[in-house]
Amino acid sequence: PLGPGGGRAYVPPAERKRFYQNVSISQGEGGFEINLDHRKLKTPQAKLFTVPSEALAIAVATEWDSQRDTIKFYTMHLTTLCNTALDNPTQRNKTQLIRAAVKFLETDTVCYRVEEPATLAELQRKEWDPVVAWAEKRYNVTIGSSTSILGPNIPASTKETFVSHLASYNMWALQGIEYVITQLKSLILSMGLIDRHITVEKAVLLSRLEEEYQIQRWGNVEWAHDYDLCELRARAAAGTLFVHLCSESSTVKHKLLQD
């Protein structure tokens, strides 16, 4: 499959037999390393797996430690995000990552509205308008919404504001931000989540508003819906945690003080 930037995305093996007993972390020259028994964890491109913060290392170690007889790689979202940050399989630089994230504004889920049915249109207004209003105030931008198939006309100044805001994050955090945006199909919901304005549950619900509306009307395939919902929550939560753990402590303190 292709990655978000058009390059080849890394596809891990789905499962593998667990081959280690103990998981530990140690501090190396490049950061914190993960040890599986006496072996150091490596990335898919065989680089030493090193992460910038101890908290992130502990979170990754927990993912490896919680695997049972088989290692289910698809449940290890933080490990996958670290691999992406270390290997950068799509070979993009900071500017390209930021541009890809901001491009989502043009197709942002919460900006596309329906006119019919009226009950869904009303639900979208009630649930999405407050988040859009928060983002406009928080970042001092104009976003708006539209019922046109072309979507709203996002001003260039709004895009530039988001570009400069995202530039305050480091490369690792940006990989996480883009991952969350890709899951929620919304820059606005992702920023609301990362800025601690809305919870993971709320962000996921708002990103799936139309599906949830249809389910309330027509019922759903119980297990499939529950699985999708849990999976999306897990990914959104992992991505958000990753961003917080990868943002330099100074940035995090600064952002919290601003709030």
TrEMBL record:
The keyword Nucleus does not apply. Its main location: mitochondrion. It comes from the Eukaryota. Keywords: Chaperone, Membrane, Mitochondrion, Mitochondrion inner membrane, Transit peptide. It is found in: Mitochondrion inner membrane. The keyword Disulfide bond does not apply. GO terms for cellular component: mitochondrial inner membrane. It holds the Pfam family ATP12. One of its GO terms (biological process) is mitochondrial proton-transporting ATP synthase complex assembly. Plays a role in the assembly of the F1 component of the mitochondrial ATP synthase (ATPase). Belongs to the ATP12 family. Interacts with ATP5F1B; involved in the assembly of the F1 component of the mitochondrial ATP synthase (ATPase). Interacts with FMC1. This is ATP synthase mitochondrial F1 complex assembly factor 2. It comes from Aegotheles bennettii. The lineage of its organism: Eukaryota, Metazoa, Chordata, Craniata, Vertebrata. The gene is Atpaf2.
